[in-house]
Amino acid sequence: MRFLMITVAAATLAACSPPVPDSGQGVGFGNYDDYQQQQRARDAQLADNALPPSTAISGEPVESDGTLVAGEGADLAAETQAVLDERSANSGEDVVHASPSNPAPEAVIGASGISEENNFDAVGAQRSIESDAAKIAQNRAQYKVIEAEALPKRTGNTGPNIVDYALATKHPRGTQVYRRIGVNLDGKAKRNCAKYPSADKAQGEFLAKGGPQRDRLGLDPDGDGYACSWDPSPFRKAVGG
């Protein structure tokens, strides 16, 4: 009895299990030969279906109804006027644009306005020793020597002349010639000299107010006769003294 039950159970399990596929059929095909044949057919189809050639661009002119977009007419007129102006500036000749194929420019020979003084052949053809001698003689004849003349004398009352005073004196600066009496003469002289733009102006005013014997303005504390350290040596050197 137990053997019969085991037999019935085994038969039931065998009926429920799916059939085992044939290992020789390949993957998804009846057999491997059919798979290879279909693969070759697919490769041939892919080789025949190449990319289509690019569409050629037509060179035929596009018909237009003659209507220009706003602004195109003005641009065309401006370009035309620019070309006309360029041709007019070049006396009607075409403009030469830069290009490697253009011929080399020709050298300008004998252009007017260019000096040929450094060209010995050209100078030798145009001039000679005789012509140079005549030119030198002409220049010497036109040469004129202007003799030095005495300076005109001053007219009117222009005040003391500091140049004449410098030439009339001989002692250097700092040599006391005149007596000065007072307290803190140097400090007063510094303040008083600061009022004048230059030592020449101070010397002229000093002479006009009684100097060099008297120093009413307090400009000559050391009594050398030169106000505000005025220096007469440049005037003396000018005349060779």
What Rg, in angstroms, do the CA atoms define? 60 Å
Total DSSP E strands? 0
Q: What portion of the residues fall into strands of 2 or more residues?
A: under 5%
> What are the low-pLDDT stretches, counting only 5+ consecutive residues below 50?
none
Terminal CA distance reads 168 Å
Task: Compute the average pLDDT.
Answer: 77
Q: How are helices and strands ordered from N to C?
A: HHHHHHHHH
| Shape by Cα distribution | elongated
Helicity range: 40-55%
The largest sheet is: none
Return the structural class: mainly alpha
**Number of alpha- plus pi-helical segments:** 9
Protein name: Excalibur calcium-binding domain-containing protein
Organism: Roseovarius aestuarii
Region (Disordered): 87-107, 202-225
3D architecture notes:
With 241 residues, the chain is mostly helical. The protein has helices spanning 2-16, 32-48, 72-89, 120-126, 129-142, 162-168, 185-193, 199-208, 233-238. The mean pLDDT is 77. 43% of the residues lie in helices and 0% in strands. It is elongated and about 165 Å long. It has a domain at 162-238. The longest helix has 18 residues, at 72-89. The chain is built from 9 helices and no strands. It starts with a helix and ends with a helix.
